[in-house]
C-alpha cells in the first residue's frame, strides 16, 4: 500500500496505460479519479475498483479544454479534500507524411498531447500550491519525445514539448513542494497496439530487433515506475524524464 491515503487523478483512464495505472494506484491504496471523454467506460472501471474495496470516482474531461481540467481538479478537491498525484496520460497518436499533414490534424494532436499536458499541470499545481503537502505530477510522454521517428511530426513535437515542460515546471515549482516527472514509454502492448499488431500494421519483428531487450513492452512494465514516482520513496526526484523502452532510446549502433 505505497499510495495509502493519497488522492490521484489519471487522465485517459478509460483504456490502455491510464486504465492500468488507475487500477494499480487503487490497489496501492490511493483514491483514484478516472478522467476521459468516455463516461460509460470510466464508470465501469470505477465500479470494478469499488467492488474490490477501493475508492474511485469517474469524471468526464476533454484535456484540450483548460476549463474542463480545472473542473475535474476542483471536483476532486471538493470530494476528497486535496489532490496529491496528477497523471497527465491522455494522448492520441498521429502518423502521416509531414508535407501533407493538415493544419487541423496538427492542431488536434498538439492540443491533446502538449496543450492538454500543460493545462493538466497548471490545474493540478493551482490546487497543490494551496496545500502544505504539495503534490506530484507525472506526465506520460514517449520515447518519441527524446528521439525522432518519421511521419510523426505532431506526435514527436508534442512529446518533446511535454518532456521540456516536465523539466521547466519541476524547476519552477520545486521550492513549493511539487515534483514533476515524466515517463517516456517505448512501444507498449495496449489493447489498441495489440489490435494494430493483429491487423499486421505494426512491424513487430523489426521493432523487437531494434529494441536491445528484444521485445515490445507490456503495460505492467510501466506500473512499478508509475507507483515509485507517485510515492514518497522518490521524494528527491523531480524534472526527470525516464525512458521505459527496453533500451530503444539509448541504442545508437547499427
Ligand atoms: P489509448 O489506449 O488510445 O488511450 C488513450 C486515452 O487517452 C484514452 O483513455 C482516451 O480516452 C484518452 N484521451 C484521448 N484524447 C482525450 C481528450 N481530448 N480528453 C481526454 N481524454 C482523452 O492509448 P495508450 O497507448 O494507453 O496511451 C496513453 C499515453 O501513453 C498517451 O499519451 C500515449 O501517447 C502514451 N504512449 C503510449 C505508447 C504505447 O505504445 N501504447 C507508447 C508511448 C507513449 P477517451 O477516448 O475516453 O477520451
Structural commentary:
This is Ketoreductase domain-containing protein. Pfam families: adh_short_C2. Helix content is 45%, strand content 15%. The protein is of the alpha/beta class. It has one domain: Rossmann fold. Helix 1 (16-27) links the parallel strand 1 and strand 2 (31-36). Helix 1 packs across helix 8 (220-230). The longest helix is centred in the middle third of the chain and has 27 residues, at 103-129. The model has no long low-confidence stretch (mean pLDDT 98). NADP nicotinamide-adenine-dinucleotide phosphate is lined by residues 11-12, 14-18, 36-38, 41, 61-64, 89-92, 112, 140, 142, 185, 187-188, 190, 192-193.
Please name the CATH architecture. 3-Layer(aba) Sandwich
Strand content: 15-25%
CATH class equals Alpha Beta
| Helix content estimate | 40-55%
Major beta sheet summary: 7 strands, parallel
Write down the Rg.
17 Å
Low-confidence stretches: none
In DSSP terms (H or I, runs of 4 or more residues), the helix count works out at 8
The secondary structure category is alpha/beta
Overall geometry = globular
Mean pLDDT: 98
Spatial gap, N to C terminus: 43 Å
CATH topology name, in short, is: Rossmann fold
Return the domain count: 1
What is the helix/strand order?
Answer: EHEHEHEHEHEHHHE
- Going across the major beta sheet, what is the strand order? 3-2-1-4-5-6-7
Number of strands: 7
Question: Mind telling me the CATH superfamily name?
Answer: NAD(P)-binding Rossmann-like Domain
Bound molecules: NADP nicotinamide-adenine-dinucleotide phosphate
Family: Belongs to the short-chain dehydrogenases/reductases (SDR) family.
GO molecular function, one term: oxidoreductase activity, acting on the CH-OH group of donors, NAD or NADP as acceptor
Organism: Desulfomonile tiedjei (strain ATCC 49306 / DSM 6799 / DCB-1)
Protein name: Ketoreductase domain-containing protein
Amino acid at each position: 500500500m505505497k499510495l495509502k491515503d493519497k488522492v490521484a487523478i489519471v487522465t485517459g483512464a478509460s483504456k490502455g496505460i491510464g486504465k492500468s495505472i488507475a487500477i494499480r494506484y487503487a490497489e496501492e491504496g490511493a483514491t483514484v479519479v478516472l478522467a476521459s471523454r468516455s463516461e460509460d467506460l470510466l464508470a465501469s472501471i470505477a465500479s470494478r475498483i469499488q467492488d474490490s474495496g477501493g475508492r474511485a470516482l469517474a469524471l468526464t474531461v476533454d484535456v484540450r479544454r483548460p476549463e474542463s481540467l480545472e473542473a475535474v481538479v476542483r471536483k476532486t478537491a471538493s470530494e476528497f479534500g486535496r489532490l496529491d498525484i496528477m497523471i497527465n496520460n491522455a494522448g492520441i497518436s498521429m502518423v502521416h507524411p509531414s508535407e501533407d499533414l493538415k493544419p487541423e490534424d496538427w492542431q488536434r494532436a498538439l492540443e491533446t498531447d502538449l496543450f492538454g499536458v500543460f493545462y493538466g499541470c497548471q490545474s493540478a499545481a493551482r490546487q497543490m500550491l494551496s496545500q502544505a503537502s504539495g503534490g506530484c505530477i507525472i506526465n506520460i510522454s514517449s520515447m518519441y519525445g527524446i528521439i525522432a521517428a518519421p511521419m510523426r511530426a505532431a506526435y514527436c513535437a508534442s512529446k518533446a514539448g511535454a518532456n521540456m515542460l516536465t523539466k521547466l515546471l519541476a524547476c519552477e515549482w520545486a521550492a513549493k513542494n511539487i515534483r514533476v516527472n515524466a515517463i517516456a514509454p517505448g512501444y507498449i502492448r495496449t489493447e489498441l497496439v495489440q489490435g494494430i499488431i493483429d491487423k499486421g500494421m505494426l512491424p513487430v519483428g523489426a521493432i523487437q530487433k531494434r529494441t536491445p531487450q528484444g521485445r515490445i513492452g507490456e503495460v505492467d512494465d510501466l506500473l512499478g515506475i508509475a507507483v515509485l514516482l507517485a510515492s514518497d520513496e522518490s521524494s528527491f526526484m523531480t524534472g526527470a524524464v525516464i525512458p521505459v523502452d527496453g533500451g530503444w532510446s539509448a541504442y545508437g549502433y547499427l
